[in-house]
Write a structure and sequence with these properties.
The chain has 5 helices and no strands. The radius of gyration is 14 Å and the shape is globular. Helix 2 packs across helix 5 (about 85-110). By secondary structure, the protein is an all-alpha fold.
C-alpha cells in the first residue's frame, strides 16, 4: 500500500493489494471477521478505483478515504491469517482467482 500511496505503484503492486483485499473480504464472508464486512466492501471499492485509474492513466494511486478503508481491511487480513489455516488461505486465493477469471470472461462476452 505504501508504494501506491507514494504514486510509485506498478500493476504488480496493485494486483497484490487487490488479491489481499479480495481474500480478506471472502474470508469475512466465510465468517472470519463477518462484523467487518462493510469495511471490506469499502476496501474493495477503493481498490477498484485504484485499478481503474491505473488502467486509464497508467498510475496506480488512490485517495485518502480509500486508503483508510484499505488500511482497515489489511489490518483485518493480518488478523485473519493468524486465525485460519494455510490451506484455507490458499483455497480462498484460488476462489478469488476463479471469480476474477469468470468476471473477465463475462466482460468479454458482453
Amino acid at each position: 500500500l505504501d508504494v501506491i500511496k507514494r504514486g510509485k505503484g506498478t500493476a504488480e503492486d496493485y494486483s497484490c493489494l487487490a488479491t489481499s483485499i479480495n481474500v480478506s473480504a471472502m474470508l469475512a464472508e466465510q465468517g472470519y471477521g463477518i462484523e467487518y464486512i462493510k469495511y471490506c466492501e469499502l476496501g474493495l471499492e477503493a481498490v477498484r478505483r485504484i485499478g481503474e485509474r491505473g488502467r486509464e492513466v497508467g498510475r496506480y494511486v488512490g485517495d485518502g478515504k480509500g486508503y483508510k478503508a484499505i488500511s482497515l481491511v489489511l489490518e483485518l487480513y493480518d488478523q485473519q491469517v493468524k486465525q485460519v489455516t494455510q490451506y484455507r488461505i490458499l483455497d480462498t486465493i484460488r476462489r478469488v482467482d476463479a471469480q476474477l477469471i469468470k468476471q473477465r470472461a463475462q466482460k468479454v462476452e458482453a
